[in-house]
């Protein structure tokens, strides 16, 4: 891909670049259809009256989550993980990465909401942080697992 | 797309990751090309042909 600024944001590997562009195109097409249906329903059937900021948030959320899930489930994020040793090493690094993410989550939460003053507030911080850490780890783990199993099938005989 | 990349690579005793490094792609991409699950761009076909010292015909032209 040349002559477009977006090329700088894409992978240098042409297979990954192509797959990523497919996922972006799929998500944009689905979102366009959904927005068109929304427009029809809102204009001619029921006045849904969704605020602009909520609509923007939903649209952005849909685009990001769709592309993220497609990339994760296709197994293109770890193209070099093909041996058991590298898989185990990467899995360990994902565990540590997730713990670091959880700690960062708590720090950022503390910066915006202030240091918890009582047990209830501590639970209010630890709860979302734990869920976010588990979610972060699972997403990475599924992606790693998918990539590993895809790469194993492509190894030299 | 059927091709002879794997046979040509094995003939020159090159590993998948070595060919990937030379051609500037990932090992996964080389594996997919060899398996016929991904059709490479012309630029990548040329890079692979040069790395394996073969012509495009020898690697990618189906004969039978």
TrEMBL record, chain A:
<keyword id="KW-0472">Membrane</keyword>
<feature type="transmembrane region" description="Helical">
    <location>
        <begin position="20"/>
        <end position="41"/>
    </location>
</feature>
<protein>
    <recommendedName>
        <fullName>DUF3278 domain-containing protein</fullName>
    </recommendedName>
</protein>
<keyword id="KW-1133">Transmembrane helix</keyword>
<keyword id="KW-0812">Transmembrane</keyword>
<feature type="transmembrane region" description="Helical">
    <location>
        <begin position="124"/>
        <end position="144"/>
    </location>
</feature>
<feature type="transmembrane region" description="Helical">
    <location>
        <begin position="94"/>
        <end position="112"/>
    </location>
</feature>
<feature type="transmembrane region" description="Helical">
    <location>
        <begin position="53"/>
        <end position="73"/>
    </location>
</feature>
From TrEMBL, chain B:
<protein>
    <submittedName>
        <fullName>Helix-turn-helix transcriptional regulator</fullName>
    </submittedName>
</protein>
<dbReference type="Pfam" id="PF01381">
    <property type="entry name" value="HTH_3"/>
</dbReference>
<dbReference type="InterPro" id="IPR010982">
    <property type="entry name" value="Lambda_DNA-bd_dom_sf"/>
</dbReference>
<dbReference type="InterPro" id="IPR001387">
    <property type="entry name" value="Cro/C1-type_HTH"/>
</dbReference>
<keyword id="KW-0238">DNA-binding</keyword>
<feature type="domain" description="HTH cro/C1-type">
    <location>
        <begin position="5"/>
        <end position="59"/>
    </location>
</feature>
């Amino acid at each position: 891909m040349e002559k477009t600024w977006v090329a700088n944001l894409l992978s240098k590997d042409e297979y990954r670049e192509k797959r990523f562009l497919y996922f972006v195109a799929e998500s944009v097409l689905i979102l366009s259809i959904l927005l068109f249906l929304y427009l029809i329903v809102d204009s001619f059937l029921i006045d849904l009256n969704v605020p602009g900021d909520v609509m923007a948030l939903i649209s952005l959320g849909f685009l990001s989550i769709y592309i993220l899930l497609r990339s994760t489930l296709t197994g293109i994020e770890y193209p070099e993980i093909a041996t058991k040793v590298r898989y185990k090493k990467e899995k360990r690094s994902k565990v540590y990465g997730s713990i670091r993410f959880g700690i960062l989550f708590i720090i950022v939460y503390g910066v915006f909401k202030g240091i918890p003053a009582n047990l209830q507030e501590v639970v209010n911080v630890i709860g979302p942080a734990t869920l976010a850490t588990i979610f972060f780890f699972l997403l990475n783990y599924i992606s790693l697992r998918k990539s590993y199993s895809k790469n194993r099938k492509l190894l030299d005989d | 797309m059927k091709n002879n990349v794997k046979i040509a690579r094995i003939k020159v005793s090159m590993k998948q990751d070595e060919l990937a490094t030379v051609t500037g792609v990932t090992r996964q991409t080389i594996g997919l090309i060899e398996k016929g699950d991904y059709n490479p761009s012309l630029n990548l076909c040329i890079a692979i042909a040069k790395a394996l010292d073969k012509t495009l015909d020898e690697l990618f032209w189906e004969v039978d």
